[in-house]
Design brief:
There is one protein chain. By secondary structure, the protein is an alpha+beta fold. The chain contains 13 helices and 25 strands. The strands form seven sheets. Strands 1, 2, 3, 6, 22, 23, 24 and 25 form an eight-stranded antiparallel beta sheet that branches. Strand 11 and strand 12 form a beta hairpin. It is globular.
């Protein structure tokens, strides 16, 4: 049958469907800014009108089993393509795994993340299995092909990342992963290993295979954006300052506190009433036994008590609970209990943990950090003063995120083999922090989030599960279902 005959035999219904897909293809090509997408019009022309390719050949089969099987295959393929398209360009599901944003977003919240808020990022590794971030479910192994890899491109969205937005992004230092210890980033593992990264790579029994993951295949994280491109961020005694101006903490932000009681043990019911999860007041001892984060202070001398800001009451040392995360409202409620003597915010001493930049000794802590300038697209950093610090702070941006060769020798910086005293950034960067300030591995630990790592903005909590309860005992948090995930600061 000739082309003219095929065109004339097409029904009005077929022409309508073809016109719908043509319109959608043209609109999508304009949105993506890629005329190559218009080639799909030829595909739709053949599917609906000309039918040179027998797309539905199985529908005419006399073998009922084969026909039924192909119906399932056809439905599954269509579903996978639809899910891939929706997941890539419109919405993505995300589950809160840690308490870094409590009490704004809770562990067990399932979020609908809008890709349209900041504009969807075109796939970097386009050949991947839908709904699998980097590992195939059940069978294991990579859920994506490493090639081809496309350059970063972001389609137009409704806006840009703003201060105090809750943002989902790919974990920046998740480019290199030790498969046996995926909960800790490779660079922190290397910092703790006496032989550095070479020691981690050599010890496969402890760390497992070391793998590289492309940007869009790295773990998804969620934090609140605190610092914007071009700003200078600083923390002084748990308080954030942007360009020297105080930024109030989020209203539901938490810090760790010590609770000093008259010896009374705080009941699980009281912790639950205040919204404190079991994971927040239990820990493991040296034998792996789960025990409360508390200690009877009987017999402890007054000098030791004073070191932690504690006092005896009529010869009674009382009992201490430590590292309990609470909001200011929860602190006030706890202080109001008659058996509570005092509630003291914990303060971290320098050197207790590693903070960004991990390979440069700053003396910074989770409470006192910076000042640190956040790179901005088009802005230039000069390597004329504080060169050691600037190299430590910005080498990763220049080398890992923006793809340049970087070397630092004898006090001089070499980029792509050329000695230079400055560098102009190609990306915008953001400084992300959790609302649970003392229990959040965030930009204070692993540094800046490049713009090409931004995934989207949570817009809806569609399900919320309480891990400490059973299905018939309050596991579903009904009051959180279908609530907005745009939690203001």
């Amino acid at each position: 049958m000739q082309l003219k005959q095929r065109l004339s035999h097409a029904t009005g219904r077929q022409w309508i469907w073809f016109a719908v897909w043509v319109a959608m293809t043209i609109l999508f090509a304009m949105w993506a800014g890629s005329p190559w997408i218009l080639l799909f019009i030829l595909l739709f022309l053949d599917i609906y009108i000309t039918k040179f390719v027998p797309w539905g050949f199985w529908k005419k089969s006399k073998n009922n089993t084969f026909r039924k099987t192909m119906e399932w295959v056809d439905a599954i393929l269509f579903a996978l393509i639809a899910v891939y398209f929706i997941n890539t360009f419109f919405f993505q599901n995300y589950q809160i795994p840690t308490s870094s944003l409590e009490k704004s977003l809770l562990v067990g919240d399932f979020l609908a993340v809008s890709k349209l808020s900041y504009g969807p990022r075109a796939p970097i590794t386009p050949l991947s299995f839908p709904l699998a971030q980097h590992t195939m479910p059940v069978v294991g192994g990579k859920s994506y092909f490493e090639k081809p890899q496309w350059k970063y491109n972001r389609l137009k969205g409704f806006g840009n990342v703003k201060r105090n937005d809750i943002v989902v992004f790919n974990f920046p230092t998740g480019d290199t992963v030790a498969l046996n210890q995926q909960g800790v980033d490779f660079y922190t593992l290397s910092r703790h290993n006496s032989n550095g990264s070479a020691g981690v790579r050599a010890d496969k029994r402890t760390y497992g295979e070391i793998v590289y993951r492309p940007v869009d295949r790295r773990e998804n994280y969620v934090k609140r954006c605190i610092g914007l491109p071009g700003e200078t961020i600083e923390l002084r005694n748990d308080t954030v300052y942007i360009d020297g101006t105080l930024l109030p903490n989020p209203r539901l932000s938490q810090h760790n506190y010590m609770i000093h009681t008259d010896g009374t043990q705080i009941s699980a019911e009281l912790f639950e009433e205040l919204g404190i999860n079991k994971a927040d007041y239990y820990t493991q001892d040296g034998y792996g036994q789960v025990i409360p984060r508390s200690q009877d202070l009987t017999g402890v001398d007054s000098l030791s008590l004073a070191l932690f800001g504690l006092q005896q009451h009529n010869g009674n040392n009382g009992r201490i609970y430590f590292s309990i995360p609470m909001t200011l409202g929860m602190v006030a409620s706890m202080k109001a209990k008659p058996f509570v003597w005092d509630v003291i915010k914990e303060k971290e001493q320098p050197g207790m943990s590693y903070y960004y930049p991990v390979n440069y000794e700053t003396g910074w802590t989770r409470d006192t950090f910076g000042p640190l300038w956040i790179p901005q697209k088009g802005a230039t950093v000069t390597f004329d003063t504080d060169v050691d610090f600037k190299v430590a702070a910005y080498e990763r941006c220049i080398k890992n995120y923006e793809g340049n060769d970087f070397a630092y020798r004898d006090g001089k910086v070499y980029i792509n083999g050329v000695q230079t005293d400055s560098y102009t950034f190609r990306f915008d960067y953001y400084f992300m922090m959790g609302d649970n300030r003392h229990n959040s591995a965030d930009s204070r630990v692993w540094g800046f989030v490049p713009e090409d790592h931004v995934v989207g903005r949570p817009v809806l909590i569609w399900l919320s599960l309480e891990k400490d309860k059973g299905w018939f005992n309050g596991k579903i948090r009904w009051k959180r279902l279908f609530r907005s995930a745009k939690i203001p600061a």
